[in-house]
Amino acid sequence: MDIRVLKNFMKIAENGSICKAAESLHISQPPLSRQLKSLEYELGTELFERSSKGVTLTKKGQLLYNRAASLISYNDLIVRELTADTNIIRLGMTTSLVDYSLEYMKNFRKDNLVNFEITEKNTFELLELLKNIMLDIVFIRTPFEIDSHFSSIKLEEDCLVALGKKHFFDKTIKNEISIKELRDMPIITVRRWKNFIDFAADVDNHTCLDYHFICDDNRTALSMAENGMGISILPSSVINNNIDDSLVSKGITNNDSLKTNIYMVFPSYKEMEPSVNKFINFVLGSPHIL
Questions:
Q1: pLDDT tens digit string along 87-135?
Q2: Least packed by Cβ within 10 Å: which of 12, 44, 74, 289?
Q3: What is the pTM of this model?
Q4: CB within 8 A of 65, min separation 6: which ones?
Q5: Would strands 186-190 and 231-235 be described as parallel, antiparallel, or unpaired?
Q6: Backbone angles phi, psi at 145, to 5 degrees
Q7: What CA–CA distance (Å, rounded) separates 251 from 175?
Q8: Beta-carbon neighbour count of residue 63 at 10 Å?
Q9: Residue 280 phi/psi, 5° resolution?
C-alpha cells in the first residue's frame, strides 16, 4: 500500500465525501476516485458505502482507518530519523510526569546532541506504543501491568499531597494533614487518583470526602487549586517547583495507599540506539529530582 494513498483514504473518511476530500487536498475528484478504487481492488474489499449523501466507512474500512494512522505515523517517523542531522529519542510520558521528565531531558541535552520526540498519553496507550516500537522509552507510574516485552526500572516513590490556598489550612499548623481533617473541605482531584483516595478514606474510619471537582488532567487540578477552587490532591511530583507563595502543600499522614511509584520502561527485546542507551544510563545515574 502506498502511504500517500493511505493518507488520501483517511482524508476521504474524515470528510465523508470524495468531492470534499479532493477540495481539501487541492486535487481533482477523478484521480482521487481512481486511487480509492485501486486501493479497494488491492485489498479485495469495499472500504466505503456510497450514497447520494456521501460515503461512510464499512467495517473493513473502519479497521483500515484505525490501522492507517499508526502506519502513517511509523512511516513519518522513519523518514524523520533517516533525514535528521541529530539523533532522536522518542520519549513517552503521562501528563502527571511531564515536569519530572523535562528535568531529565533538559539536563541530558546540555552535553548531548540529541532531539526528543515527546508523546503524552495514558499508561495503557504508552505501553502499547512501546510494544509496537513507536516509542523508545516511557515514564509512567503505578499501577500498571507489565509483561516480558518490557524492562522496567523504579526511579522514585511519589506520594499524593494536599494543595490549596493558605486559608484552607488555617486550622492545620503541621506540615501534614490527615484524611479525616480533609473530609469537610472542597476536594479536587484527577479521576485516576480518586480510587486511591477513596480506599484511604475508607480505611480511615470510613471517612467520606466532599469532591467538588474531578477532572482528567493533573495540570487542570493544579490550576483549580491556584484559582482557590478547593484543595487538590495530587502527586508531589506534579506540584514540585510549580507553586507560588499563596499555595500550601501538605503531606497526607499514615497512608501507604496514597503512594505511587515512578518507573522508566523500555523494550527488552530490541537493540537500543546508542543515544537511547546513553539517556537510560544518564537517568539511572542522575540524583533524585523529587
A1: 889 999 998 888 889 989 999 999 998 989 899 988 888 998 888 788 8
A2: 44
A3: 0.66
A4: 9, 10, 13, 57
A5: parallel
A6: -105, 135
A7: 7
A8: 13
A9: -60, -45
Question: Which backbone phi and psi does 246 adopt, to 5 degrees?
Answer: -80, -10
pLDDT tens by residue, 46-64: 999 988 888 899 999 999 9
Residue for cell digits 486559608? 167
Nearest in space to 160 (alpha carbons), one of 228, 93, 252: 252
- Closest among 46, 54, 49 to 29, alpha carbons compared: 54
Q: Provide the residue count of the chain.
A: 290
Where b means 16+ CB within 10 Å and e means fewer, 17-55 reads ebebbbeebeeeeeebeebbeebbeeeeeebbeeeeebb
CA 272 to mean position of chain CA atoms: 22
Q: Give the integer Cα–Cα distance in Å for 280 and 228.
A: 39
Q: How far apart (Å, rounded) are the C-alpha atoms in residues 147 and 268?
A: 10
Confidence of residue 81 (pLDDT cuts 50, 70, 90): low
Residue reference for cell 500517500: 4
Q: What is the 3-state secondary structure (H, E, C) of the chain?
A: CCHHHHHHHHHHHHHCCHHHHHHHHCCCHHHHHHHHHHHHHHHCCCCEEEECCEEEECHHHHHHHHHHHHHHHHHHHHHHHHHCCCEEEEEEECHHHHHHHHHHHHHHCCCCCEEEEEEECCHHHHHHHHHCCCCCEEEEECCCCCCCCEEEEEEEEEEEEEEEEHHHHCCCCCCEECHHHHCCCEEEEEHHHHHHHHHHHHHCCCCCCEEEEEECCHHHHHHHHHCCCCEEEEEHHHHCCCCCCCEEEEEECCCHHHEEEEEEEEECCCCCCHHHHHHHHHHHHCCCCC
